[in-house]
Structure formats: C-alpha cells, structure tokens
Design brief:
single chain, 234 residues, alpha/beta, 5-stranded mixed barrel, 10 strands, binds adenine
C-alpha cells in the first residue's frame, strides 16, 4: 500500500493539488495543515510546509511519524544554475545537498553534514523516472533536466553567489527546502524526489523574474506530480 507525502513550501505550489483531492481531511501539526485523502486515485497527504530548511525538515518528520508515508515528493519552483535550464523548464532531482553547511574547519567537505560520510542525498531513481515520463505526458513542450538541487536558507539573487554554487557544488538549481526534505527522507528510509520548475536565473535579474514567473512555474510542477500519482497508485 502506498501513501505519498507531497510537500510544497508555498501556497501556490500546493493549491491545485489540494483542490483536486477527494475526501480530504485536515490535520494540523506544527502550524501546518496536512490534507490527507486521495489524489488521482492514490492515497496522499498534501502540505504547505512554509519556506526554508527547518520548516521542510519538520514537515517530513511529521509525514513519516504521523501519516506513515511511503514516498515523498517535493514540488515547487527554483532558481536555475544551469545554462540549459531556462525559466519555465523543469528540474527533476538526481540528488540534493545543503549549500549552506560548512564544517571545513574539521576536515569535512563543504556542504557535508558532519559524520554522515557523504554530502549528496540521492533521489529515488524510480520516482525520478516516473517524474520524467509524467512530464513528457503533461508538459510535452517543456525542457526537463535531471540534476542536482542545492538548498540553503537564502534566496539566490547575485551572479557571484550563483557562480559559487556552480563551482563548489555543480548545482543545477537553487532553492530553500529540497535538501532538508531529502535529508529527512533519507533518515527515515523513505524514497523521495524533488521536482522544481524554474522561476528565475538566481542572478541579478532574479528579483524581477521571480514574481513574474513563480505562478506558472509552480503550476507546471504540480501538474506533473498529479500525473505521477496515476502511475504510483497501481
Ligand atoms: N526559489 C526560486 N528561486 C529561488 C532562488 N533564486 N533562490 C532560492 N530559492 C528560490
């Protein structure tokens, strides 16, 4: 039996999913509304976790402990770090890491959480494949890239910081929750995938582009998730 936890940081990333659920009941925890019900025939819990890594980590733990989810999908928007990813394109996670973790002074790699032994949290290959196939179905004109999500409690809007994230981490997109969701899913042994539509280029134009494109980008990502559930339910 599968039960899919679907997390978006912002309301516009989950509003369509919540509207499309049937027989959903709302459970409140840690200031978050967990919508538990069926989505496209699959058991699902849809939740807006709020922005940033702490909110995201708490949310995954609640999905694991209270709802017993078997899979976690993160849907939302991100800034592009890859020239092949334009505004409106979609990034599906190969892996994710924390770009703001720095314990190099004790010999750890930049981005490595001490004592974990690695810095990249690997996404579930089957979920990533499902996401890619679903995207071809619902968003056939949209360019999709499999790549690395780098996350930190920071909105990236400068060329210098963007260059740093590319040179240090080979990141493909930057956002503020994915690595925490990946980290929490890993600790709980739950397969995960992050799906992010590009809303800006994480550079000096990000401040202007983000408000213009976030809505359409968030919708594309959510539509893809809905299509994935049709496959996951069987
Ligand atoms: N989410 C969307 N765009 C972003 C950016 N440039 N930095 C961090 N999070 C984002």
């Amino acid at each position: 039996m599968i039960k899919v936890g679907i997390i978006g940081a912002m309301e516009l990333e989950v509003e369509q999913l919540k509207a499309d659920m049937s027989e959903a009941k709302i459970v409140k925890k840690a200031g978050m509304d967990f919508h538990e019900g069926a989505l496209n025939g699959a058991d699902a819990v849809v939740v807006r976790c709020g922005i940033g890594k702490v909110n995201a980590a708490l949310c995954v733990q609640i999905l694991a402990d209270v709802f017993g989810v078997t899979h976690v999908i993160n849907t939302g928007v991100a800034g592009s770090l890859n020239a092949a990813l334009d505004i409106g394109d979609i990034l599906i996670s190969k892996d994710a890491l924390h770009h703001d973790m720095d314990v190099r002074v004790f010999g750890y790699q930049l981005g490595e959480v001490p004592q974990m032994g690695f810095r990249e949290f690997t996404a579930d290959v089957q979920l990533a494949d499902l996401a890619r196939n679903a995207c071809e179905k619902v968003n056939p004109d949209i360019n999709v890239v499999l790549g690395r999500v780098v996350s930190g409690d920071q909105f990236i809007s400068s060329k210098e910081v963007k260059e740093h994230l590319i040179s240090e981490f080979h990141g493909d997109c930057a956002e503020m929750e994915g690595a925490s969701i990946a980290h929490g899913a890993y600790l709980n042994g739950i397969p995960f995938v992050i799906i992010r539509a590009i809303s800006d280029k994480a550079d000096d134009s990000a401040e202007m582009d983000y408000p213009t494109f976030e809505k359409a980008a968030a919708r594309h990502s959510a539509a893809l998730v809905e299509e994935m559930l049709k496959e996951l339910r069987s």
